[in-house]
Amino acid sequence: MTLFRAAEDDEYFFAEGCYILELCNNPLDAHVSIARARLPAGETTRWHCLQGISERYIILQGQGEVYVGDEAPLAVRKQDVVFIPAGCAQRMHNNGEQELIFLAVCSPRFVESAYRDLYSDE
């Protein structure tokens, strides 16, 4: 048995535009990683994709809109799960009055070299 334990002090601001706390991201479990993402009210993450990594957002708190590929934005709230295929453009917008908090579950596990910033000045 292996226990992964995150410390709140390990939270960091990621280039995507939100705060990340890695709950489980270890080569010992290369099939999946789990991170808590925290997006302040009114903020939007950058357009990005993960090369070779599928992602699921599990909404824990707040509300927002998720943009995936060319699809129309979807309203999300607590207990919603959003699947994002590998290589698909994505971003999240917090349109609520409190922080939007969600888990980002990646398979295989997240590695920073897979992150691609897709920002454009639209």
Written overview of the protein:
This protein is an all-beta fold and 122 residues long. It has a single domain, classed as Sandwich (Jelly Rolls). It has no helices and eleven strands. It has strands at residues 12-14, 18-24, 33-39, 48-50, 54-61, 63-68, 74-77, 81-84, 90-93, 100-107, 115-117. It has a six-stranded antiparallel sheet, with no helix packed on it. Strand 1 and strand 2 form a beta hairpin. The radius of gyration is 14 Å and the shape is globular. The chain starts with 11 loop residues before the first strand and ends in a 5-residue tail after the last strand.
Short recap of the structure:
The chain has no helices and eleven strands. It has 122 residues and is mainly beta.
> Uncertain segments of ≥5 residues (pLDDT<50)?
none
What name goes with the CATH superfamily?
Jelly Rolls
What portion of the residues fall into strands of 2 or more residues? over 45%
Main sheet: which strands, in order across?
1-2-3-10-5-8
Average of pLDDT: 95
Shape, per Cα inertia axes: globular
List keywords for this structure.
122 residues, mainly beta, Jelly Rolls, six-stranded antiparallel beta sheet, three-stranded antiparallel beta sheet, 47% strand, globular
Secondary structure: elements and pairs:
Blueprint: E1 12-14, E2 18-24, E3 33-39, E4 48-50, E5 54-61, E6 63-68, E7 74-77, E8 81-84, E9 90-93, E10 100-107, E11 115-117
Antiparallel strand pairs: 1-2, 2-3, 3-10, 4-11, 5-8, 5-10, 6-7, 6-9
